[in-house]
């Protein structure tokens, strides 16, 4: 469970950075690949990030994603083209909602995670000879 949470807190850190960069309308996470088959992991990501998670039903989501990028280019690129392509080509998926009763717990754990990351970065600077 600790490893699953570490991955989820790392994802939360990425989403936080994206939001700080101005992309504030993130509402859904789409998961694919091996870990997406693990319901405990999917629920953990939803709970840690407090976002709904959609697990794609696509057999080969990487190949589909590449095809969607190609189709987006054919439609002229940009956000509108990618939205059009996504509506036409994206498969359905199973949606997992976050458990809001764990939000405060995960906020505290995430604060600890961020402190540990900062400490690890400081240790690396020290080992490189800097203070």
What is the topological layout?
Layout: H1 2-20, E1 28-31, H2 39-49, E2 52-56, H3 61-74, H4 78-89, E3 93-96, H5 103-127
Parallel strand pairs: 1-2
Antiparallel strand pairs: 2-3
Helix pairs in contact: 1-2, 3-4
Summarize the structure.
This protein is mainly α and 131 residues long. The chain contains five helices and three strands; from the N terminus they run αβαβααβα.
Please give a structural write-up:
The protein is mostly helical and 131 residues long. The protein contains five helices and three strands, in the order αβαβααβα. It has helices at 2-20, 39-49, 61-74, 78-89, 103-127; strands spanning 28-31, 52-56, 93-96. Strands 1-2-3 form a three-stranded mixed sheet, with helices on one face. α2 (39-49) links the parallel β1 (28-31) and β2. α1 (2-20) runs parallel beside α2 and α3 (61-74) packs across α4. It is globular, with a radius of gyration of 18 Å. The model has no long low-confidence stretch (mean pLDDT 90).
């Amino acid at each position: 469970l600790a490893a699953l949470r570490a991955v989820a807190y790392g994802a939360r850190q990425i989403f936080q950075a994206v939001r700080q960069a101005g992309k504030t309308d993130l509402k859904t996470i789409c998961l694919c690949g091996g870990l997406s088959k693990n319901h405990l992991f999917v629920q953990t990501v939803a709970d840690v990030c407090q976002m709904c998670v959609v697990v794609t039903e696509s057999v080969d989501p990487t190949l589909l994603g590449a095809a969607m990028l190609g189709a987006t280019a054919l439609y002229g690129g940009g956000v509108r083209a990618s939205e059009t392509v996504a509506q036409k080509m994206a498969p359905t998926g199973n949606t997992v909602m976050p458990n809001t009763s764990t939000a405060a717990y995960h906020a505290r754990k995430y604060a600890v995670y961020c402190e540990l990351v900062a400490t690890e970065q400081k240790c690396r600077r020290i080992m490189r000879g800097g203070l």
